[in-house]
Amino acid sequence: MALKPVNVGLLGLGTVGGGTINVLRRNAEEIARRAGRGIRVSKAVARDHHKLRSFSMEGIALIEDPFAIVNDPEIEIVCELIGGIDPAREIVLTAIRNGKHVVTANKALIALHGNEIFEAARRKGVIVAFEAAVAGGIPIIKAVREGLAGNRIQTVAGIINGTCNYILSEMREQGSDFRSALSSAQRLGYAEADAAIDVEGVDAAHKLTILASIAFGIPLQFDKVYREGITQISPVDIHYAEELGYRIKSLGIARNAPGGIELRVHPTLIPERHLIASVEGIMNAVLVIGDAIGPTLYYGAGAGAEPTASAVVADLVDVVRAMTADPENRVPHLAFQPHAISDISVKSMDDVETAYYLRLYAVDRPGVLANITAILGQQDISIEAIIQKEPDHGARHVPVIFLTQRIRERNMVEAISKIEALDAVDGKVFRIRVETLA
Q: Which residues are catalytic?
């Protein structure tokens, strides 16, 4: 006898909500074959009930109050796609208290309140699935949590914000400055009018928090992620990086390093031969290095209606498959058994070791370069390459570019402070970290 379809309450009918409805309708037969029964959205919440939509609402009851859905005994899975923290947090916790499973694409909610949410779900014996919260349609959560479960994960690093990647690609390909590239991203709908969450690295830090937790078995710790945006990157840096054989990408990097876990989001020079260096536009790519498998790379659309809906629907299928399973035998939310979560510390950025790209402007006279290299030497900083450009006509200062070998951040900060204090150096020393992703 065929089982009756599972009723889903969908909160949010925006881009991803509409994509989820389309995928569930178009692939209904295939999804039922995979899940063992049908999955249908029976009720949905939207701010505007009269808005013209590009997808059919046939058979879906529109509700104004999200709590009417999470309190509805007929709803078995709550799909939270409204985003933000409030009221999403209380909606999700109420759904869990009511014994409902939850699927969410809300990376900020998971990064900031996931520890509380997963503990509540564990006590209640329900599932909270969140594949769509990281890297859109790329199944990176499942890959790390399940596919690589036999590995000791060493590094997770990659492009996990499509807006930043589009802007840096536009700057490289068109020679645009940051502001022009951002305006292009906003015109095309790749960036919000207020793009700070993207370009300052907040969105990527939310995602990196989640990836690090499932990779290393540590609590979600968004507040420990070092974060630096791309707003200060200029076309000259992109040009000099290419001259040195590198490209600039905004990366999220989580590494299980001696002395603790590194958690950092920042612009990074990576060798142009690396596959991630060729990832352009709004695409995402995540590199995962495990001790048994070595490096693996996951590439795909990091946003968009149906790519993200692909992950949402996959979570719905997983939840339906597991609904009748013993809660104790389900895949743990954060990959590791709850009692085995580690208290390993997150390293201060001062103690992180990377190589560096430095750009500065110095007076073109004998001895100046020697003074700068002497300061670097005092901090045990070895130089990999130097580019000194000819001065523009009438210019007193010339651009000098250094590429260094790996050194602790605190040594570099001290060296930069001393270099900036030289009379022969004009203004600030601009710094970008360098990673080989080996």
A: 207
